């Protein structure tokens, strides 16, 4: 199979999976939106945000596992493949156990940050207290998903993501409109979907990869000091890097909110362009994780360079397509999202910034995939940290002059610099 075919074979299922992920939250919002009280919508928004941020922060369980697994596959180290999966699942369970033990302090901290109204608070409690029990399933599923990607298999994560959404829709609708539950029915639907996804992934692993555990001796050195030091070093860098990404995204929303409801609405709508871009580009980043790690682990530098070249070719081609789509259909797309003419008119002066996102961000997306694949996580951390500092610096220096344009300029520069710094790091540290 040619490199291009391998990339498409891995990227397309990943893109489909990415598109289905936000549907879990959207389905919940759509259901409570028909319960007749806006408090339910606010509670789901707050509850979903809490778990989205938590799971995003601990996404290193997927990314770190993906890179190390693809390298082990490339070097044909079947014993290490099993050890990596067990380590990832063990760490995921340990973190989830901590979540469950400290769920009340964690809830208090999250609500102190978000500060929902007194009317919404009891509903958030209900949603949170149910969904927190999905933490073991979600964090273990991260490890399994990363392992599948490292094994060059993005179809199983796609099947799991689709099943989760189908189960969530069926169970939530049944509990809310069939049994008469309200927000607890929505939360139970999400919880059951999460555990169903994890169990399906586990069953599919047993079906297609269980023979690895039976045919190879992998228990010796499972938690050796050297292995665990590498595991935590890789994941520590990804964890810290994710904190910088989360801070930029949260403060982008926060800075927009300081300018009033209209600008907050404008920025929220325009960030949809970024979301669409990330759905597409992350699919190719996942392909980069799998393929670059495999060939890097195998010591096949020629194939590794070809993967990089082809990934960037695909990335820039799709970035141009997305840019043209946003340019030609930007206002029409905003009209689909809202019929509020005042918001659309207010968004138009900032549209060019959102249109620039695919081109300026392609390097960050593709290099992230490559760096995860070769576990060059220190470079990811450095690029994210420096770019985040630049984001805040540009905003503080120029907001008084440019207003909301300064916020968008800071975001565009932040995305561009992540890719540029990773390119410099890759050449200077001689990773290739």
Give a written overview of the molecule:
Helix content is 86%, strand content 0%. By secondary structure, the chain is mainly alpha-helical. Helix 4 (60-74) packs parallel to helix 12. The longest helix is centred in the middle third of the chain and has 37 residues, at 261-297. It starts with a helix and ends with a helix. The mean pLDDT is 88.
Give the N-to-C terminal Cα separation: 23 Å
Q: Low-confidence stretches at least 5 residues in length (pLDDT < 50)?
A: none
- The string of secondary-structure elements, in order, is HHHHHHHHHHHHHHHHH
The structure class reads mainly alpha
Shape: globular
Mean pLDDT: 88
The biggest sheet, with number of strands, parallel, antiparallel or mixed sense and barrel status, is: none
Helix content: over 70%
Relative strand content:
under 5%
Brief descriptors of the model:
single chain, 432 residues, mainly alpha, 0% strand
Task: Write the topology of this structure.
Layout: H1 3-20, H2 23-32, H3 38-57, H4 60-74, H5 78-101, H6 103-114, H7 121-131, H8 135-150, H9 155-179, H10 183-215, H11 225-257, H12 261-297, H13 301-337, H14 341-347, H15 351-373, H16 377-402, H17 404-428
Helix pairs in contact: 1-9, 1-12, 2-3, 2-9, 2-10, 3-7, 4-5, 4-8, 4-11, 4-12, 5-8, 7-10, 8-10, 9-10, 11-12, 11-16, 12-13, 12-14, 12-15, 13-15, 15-17, 16-17
